[in-house]
Amino acid sequence: MSEPVVLKYNVDGENFTSAGEASVAVKKSLRQMGFPPEAIRRVSIAMYEGEINMVIHADGGEATVNVYPDKIEIILADKGPGIADISLAMQEGYSTAPDNIRSLGFGAGMGLPNMKRYTDDMRIESEVGVGTTVYMTVNV
Amino acid sequence: MKISKIKKLLDAKVICCEHLLETEVNSACGSDMMSDVLAFVKDNAVLLTGLVNPQVIRTAEMMDIKCIVFVRGKEPTENVIELAQSMEIAILTTDERMYVACGKLYMNGLEGGSVITS
Predict the structure, then answer these.
(1) Beta strand B45-49 pairing with B27-30
(2) Could you give the ipTM of this predicted complex?
(3) Cα A10–chain centre separation
């Protein structure tokens, strides 16, 4: 397989106002590379939800996007509190986001389910007190 | 439905990207929860919301939404307007409440989109 184009971003956890900037940048890059709109849309939505999660729960982190001709991998790694019960976190409507985040339009417990819905493969590695890494793949 | 017709039906003010007024939208979504908007699939939609922050604009960008209507007379701040301009998203603001704004568009033929269920 050919070498991927690698896009890397630091997701700032300090400031909710900037949350989503990395996903916007990825969407722009994928458009320039000429990927089909539907694949771009799925990558953008999944990454955006993940990026928002990193800001809400983990004080930011690192986003890596590996772009292959036939698939796009998104890796979101944080050093946040970790997820104690991943299957519970995957349930629609389950959220641990604080109320101030709800007033900003997030924290409905739809983030992880949406990420799974829009990707072909999703895997979560998490250790309480250490951090969480989410691996997602969208086939083009 | 053209964005210009939405403007007329809701007696809305155009905040930015007036050049998009003749753009057609095919469906609409009314929500203050951005995660619900992200579960919504049809493109060429207009988003009606009472939430005014940069994430609304970025959510719209992710969903290829070309027009946002802020209801209940909400006015976006300058940085939100600049973000929308940079992404070529038309911003309208109306004094109508969410329910009434959605009802007026629906009555005039603009239907809701489908939601992914699996």
Answers:
(1) parallel
(2) 0.85
(3) 12
Task: Domain B3-107: give its CATH code.
Answer: 3.40.1390.20
Q: How many residues does chain A have?
A: 140
Answer yes or no: is pLDDT of A49 > 80.
Answer: yes
CATH number at residue A109: 3.30.565.10
Give the amino acid at B15. I
Number of domains in chain A: 1
Domain residue extents for chain B: 3-107
CA distance B101 to B94: 8
Q: What mean pLDDT is reported for chain A?
A: 94
A-B contacts (CB, under 8 Å): 72
Give the pLDDT score at B118: 43
Cβ-based contacts of A114 with chain B (< 8 Å): 35, 38-39
* Full residue range of the structural domain in which residue A73 is found: 5-139
CA dist A7 and A91 (Å) reads: 30
Average pLDDT, chain B: 91
Residue of A1 and B56 predicted with greater confidence: B56
* Average pLDDT rounded to a whole number, residues A62-91: 96
3-state secondary structure of B92: strand
CB B1 within 8 A of CB B105: yes
- Of B32, B62, B116, which has the smallest distance from its Cβ to A44's Cβ? B62
Residues 6+ apart with CB under 8 A from B91: B14, B15, B16, B17, B67, B68, B70, B76, B81, B84
Contact B58 A23 (CB under 8 A): yes
- Closest alpha carbon to A20 in A42, A47, A2: A47
* Option in A20, A108, A111 nearest B58 (CB): A20
Asked if residue B78 lies in contact with residue B54, where contact means CB atoms within 8 angstroms, the answer is: no
